[in-house]
Structures are given as C-alpha cells and as structure tokens.
Design brief:
Chain A is mainly α. Chain A has 13 helices and 4 strands. Chain B is of the alpha/beta class. In chain B, the strands form 2 sheets. In chain B, strands 1, 2, 3, 4, 6, 7, 8, 9 and 11 form a 9-stranded mixed beta sheet that branches. In chain B, strands 5-10 form a two-stranded parallel ribbon. In chain B, helix 6 links the parallel strand 6 and strand 7. The chains are: A mainly alpha, B alpha/beta.
C-alpha cells in the first residue's frame, strides 16, 4: 500500500518570519533533527566569527598589505615583522608537490587493485592500505625526521634533509590510502551499462579502463584531487617536524620551508593572548581555513556536476 | 552483567585520580635535566609524592604558570614586562628563584674542525653574512644555521648577547629544543647551533666552540669571563609554600640538589664543599 506522508492536505500556516510550515504536531524527533542540523551551521559561523574577532585587531598595528604580501616573518623582534607571503608560498609548494606525487601513485595502485591483481593479492593490498591509513601523522613525522632526513642528506648531498621534499614524501604516504580508497569506490561503482556496452563492442579490459572509465571519471578524480589537496593543506604535525621551519621563499624542493600550519603550531604556545603576534597567528589560521574551504567547495561542486552529468546520461 | 560493567568502568575512571600529580613542573628545556633529576631524587626520598616534569620552552612554562596549569615554571630567561604585568592582573606576583647558572655554547659537529669563533663571527654566521665554513677557517662547505624557536629562553639570550638586535637569517632552520639541536648537529656536519652546557656531553658527535678562545666551563662562567653565561630560574606563583617550597628550597637549593646540578653539567649557585 502506498501511504504518502502528505496524503492528507494540511493547511499551510504563515509565521511571522514569512516561513510556511505544515500544521502537524512537532514531536521530539523533529526538534532533535532540526536543532542538530542548525547546531552545525551555528558552530561553523561561530568559528568564522571567532577567527575574525581575533584577527581584525592586528590591522590596528600592521597594514593588511604588509600582512598578506610582506616577505619577512619575524614576530619576536622589535618591531615585529608579520609578512606571511613566504609561509603561504611554502604551504602551496608543499601541497602541490604532494598532490603531484600522490595522484599518479594512487591511480596506479587503484588500477592495479581493481583490474590487474588476483583476488588474494587484492585482499592483501586492501589490508595493507587500511594499515597505512591508520598510521598517525606524528609517526610519519618521526620517520621523516629520523630516517628520511639523514638518507636524503647523504644521497643527494644536501645541506639538510629537513626540506619540502621530505615533507611532501611523508604527506604522500599519508594521503595515498585516502585517495586510493576513494578512487576505488568510484571505479567499482562505475555504471555497469557503459562497461557492458564497451564489452559488447569488443573492448578488452584495458581498453575499457583507459578509453571508457578514466575519461568518464574525470569529474570524480578532479574532486578527489581537490579533497586530497584540502587534507594535505591543513596537515600540521608532519610539516612541523620535517619541513625545516625556515621562513624563506623555497627555490628548489630541497630547500627548507615554513608552512602556515607549522607556524601556528610552533609559535602559538608561547604567544600571550592579546599581543599582535597572537592576532597574526589567528590571521594565519583564517587564511588556512578559507583556502581549505574554497578547495573543498570546488571539490564538492565538481563532484555534484559529475553526478548530474551521469544521471543525465 | 551490564550493571557490573558500568560500575567497573566508573571505578576505573575514579581510580585514575590516583595518577594526579602533587607537583607539576613545565618550561625550559635547558632547565629540564635539572628538574628531572631533582624530581627523581625527591620522589625517591618521598615515595608518596608524584612530580610531573615537562620541557617545552621557557615561554610555554611561564604561560602555563600564568594560566595556573603548573606549580613551577622552569625558565632560562628573565620574565618579560608583559608577562609580569599579566601575572599582576591575575592576582599574584611571580617569584623567580635562581637554581643554577648556565652557559650557552655554540656547537658544531665533531667532524668539523672549527673550534674557535669570535662573537662577531657568530653574529655574521647567524645573520647570513658568512655563508661558508671556509670563511671562518673550516672546510669549504656551506654553513647550515640552526636556531631555537621563539618560546626558547636559550634563544632569547642568544638574540640579546650575540645578535644584539640584528635579524637571524630567514634560512635558519628552527627547532624546538636543545635535544633537537644536538640531534641535528650529530647527523649533519655542516650545521652550527647553540645549546646550554648541560647538553654538551649528551652526544659524542658534537663539539663545543670556544668564543674568542674562552670555552664554556664552570670556572670561566663564574669568573665572569664567558660572555654567554646566564642564571636559570624556577618561577612560582607568589612566595612558594607547601610542597613547592620543600622541593625547590629545602631540596633543590641544598648541597644535595646542587650536587645534582653539577652532575647534570650546570654551574651550582654556590661553591660546593668537596
């Protein structure tokens, strides 16, 4: 029997705010669901407000141009210099380099898992990826600090093994399980009609993969790239331990750098509330927050566009 | 069964309160070895007392003291005016006690032959004006500069007495503790850094550098000849009483405590009888 919730026409009532609500008894479940939905929105707005509230006082002492485009970050000298440009460039370089390393490797691992590997190896690989994804980032930082840095120093004859390359490599280890599992989800849930259609036309497995699936999955893969980028951008512990924390404009991947998140982690503990340094660190937090927000919004938008396209076809 | 589990976990949670500490000490990584050794010896003498010792930088220790999160703040520097005023506004005056004297020594890797630098050379290296070891009498390799982060009392003293207002080069790597500096130097022979003398013996791969011929020793610091000597403090909220005063004044400043200071590698505050 098809019972429709709205089978009985209920009178719509206009409230003072102009909202139309159905006249039915509001029960406890309604209230709980409604308020949980609203609480998350309120919390996000509260976070944004909190960030701005603790950031705006900075611009009484420092000009916005100097904050966003200044090239020297020396918060403890007198008078302090709060130029965040080298920090932003460092974060962007580390994130881009990690993404460049993660995406192809995850793609290859996923394709191997879903198309090439026999069942037993596929199972082992999945277990291995699960294991990898549960390594805490501080452990990865420790590995980068103790093992990878001396290795890089000796093999590439560098001044120091704590650099962008080290940080990006450890971030890649962090992100590959996440990206690979997301890609696997999309490949496995690829519309079977398209695969069968290609099979009917006589395509081999590899041709189906490269000529049907990958071009068709451009949207989701772009959104996976964006989501991984968002994850990498905000990662703090690894970059704090292995990026070297030198506030320069890195010219090569073997230069040390001071990313935004590591700056906050390293300096917030010592900063007294209400000083310009405090406001500047909140400004950095706001920058990270907004860039990550934009990246995630773009990722979601690409994913939704893809879903609409797939539904249409 | 369910009720049993609830009671079990509840009492487990309650029993965790046993692990509450009688004394919490946080702050300078330079003073950390002293605080740790004192805590160990004190807990051996008084088994019912539990002391927690953490090293995360003088600035963090003082901040914890201001926030009421620690009983004793270790500090390798004097408090800033802003910190003292903040303490006043929170209703107490910070009471610093000198527990030892320290000297900061520039250190290099043991495979780097440079063993003597002047204050001007050190300033030039840290400013980024001197970039290769060959410019100061060493082999021809680039100098990698390591500094401490801004919560470090060691760094403050270095800035005040060596940099004298000049900016440290942006290329300097920033690390969070004395132990980190030692680790970096042990692994990389191009690095120069600075540590408190308590850390000079902590690795066989590091060697201290004399400043204009004067090495960082107890005698030189006490005679006032060594330029980078400084007092080490333990700061309390107001005049210490109870466990805090027993720990610092009765134990730490006694000959037993000062013997420990000497054993750890720092300079006792008074001459110890042999």
């Amino acid at each position: 029997m098809e019972a429709s919730f709205n089978a009985i026409p209920l009178p719509k009532v206009k409230t003072c705010g102009g909202l139309w609500i159905n006249m039915r008894k509001i029960n406890a479940v309604d209230t709980i669901l409604w308020s949980s939905g609203w609480i998350s929105n309120v919390i996000i707005i509260a976070i944004i407000f909190f960030l701005f509230y603790n950031w705006m006082p900075l611009f009484r002492m420092v000009s916005p141009i100097e904050f966003f485009f200044g090239t020297k970050w020396y918060p403890t000298v007198v008078p302090p210099l709060y130029g965040t440009l080298p920090l932003l460039v460092a974060t962007i370089e580390i994130s881009l380099f990690s993404l460049i390393l993660t995406f192809p490797i995850s793609l290859v691992v996923t394709i191997f898992m879903t198309f090439v590997a026999p069942k037993k190896i596929r199972y082992l690989l999945k277990v291995f990826l699960e294991f990898f994804s549960s390594i805490p980032s501080v452990v990865l930082g420790l590995i980068g600090l103790s093992i990878l840095s001396s290795y890089l120093q000796n093999v590439f004859n560098l001044d120091t093994g704590l650099n962008i390359f080290n940080a990006s490599l450890m971030l890649t280890f962090l992100t590959i399980p996440m990206a690979a599992s997301m890609m696997e989800d999309f490949i496995v849930s690829f519309p079977i009609e398209q695969v069968e259609g290609a099979q009917a036309l006589g395509a081999t497995n590899m041709e189906i993969l490269w000529k049907v699936m990958i071009p068709g999955l451009k949207g989701p893969f772009a959104s996976i790239a964006m989501l991984s980028m968002g994850r990498i951008f905000g990662e703090t512990m690894i970059v704090l331990m292995v990026a070297g924390n030198a506030a320069i404009f890195p010219l090569s991947v073997f230069d040390p750098a001071k990313p935004l998140s590591a700056t906050i982690a390293a300096e917030m503990g010592e900063t007294a509330v209400g000083t310009s340094h405090f406001y500047a660190l909140f400004g950095i937090g706001a920058i990270i927050f907004f860039i990550t927000l934009v990246i995630n919004i773009i990722g979601e938008w690409v994913r939704i566009r893809y879903e609409r396209e797939m539904r249409r076809s | 069964m369910k009720r049993f589990l609830v009671v079990f976990f509840f009492s487990l949670g309650l029993s965790l309160s046993v692990f509450a500490f009688n004394l919490v000490i946080t702050g300078s990584t330079t003073v950390l070895p002293i605080a740790q050794q004192w805590a160990q010896a004190y807990m051996a003498q008084h088994p019912e007392i539990r002391i927690s010792v953490v090293g995360n930088g003088s600035g963090n220790g003082i901040k914890a003291l201001l926030d009421g999160l620690t009983n004793i703040a270790d500090s390798s520097r004097w408090m800033k005016n802003s910190e003292i005023r903040l303490a006043e506004s929170r209703g107490f005056f910070p009471f610093p006690i000198v527990v030892a004297y320290d000297a900061i020594a520039p250190v290099v890797n043991v495979n780097n032959p440079v063993r003597n630098l002047s204050l001007e050379q050190l300033k030039g290296i840290y400013e980024g004006k001197i970039t290769r070891w060959s410019q100061v009498g060493g082999p021809d390799m680039p100098i990698v500069v390591v500094q401490r982060d801004n919560s470090s009392g060691t760094h403050e003293v270095w800035e005040e007495k060596v940099m004298k207002g000049a900016l440290v080069t942006a290329r300097a790597l920033t690390v969070a503790s004395n132990a980190e500096v030692v680790r970096m130097i042990s692994q990389n022979k191009k690095v120069i850094g600075y540590v408190g003398i308590g850390y000079m013996e902590s690795s066989t791969m590091i060697a201290d550098v004399a400043i204009s011929g004067i090495k960082a020793t107890i005698a030189a610091a006490r005679a006032g000849k060594y330029p980078l000597a400084r007092p080490l403090f333990m700061i309390t909220r107001g005049i210490p009483n109870g466990e805090v005063s027993k720990f610092i004044i009765n134990f730490g400043l006694s000959p037993a405590g000062q013997e420990i200071v000497k054993k750890v590698g720092f300079i006792p505050i008074y001459r110890l009888k042999k």
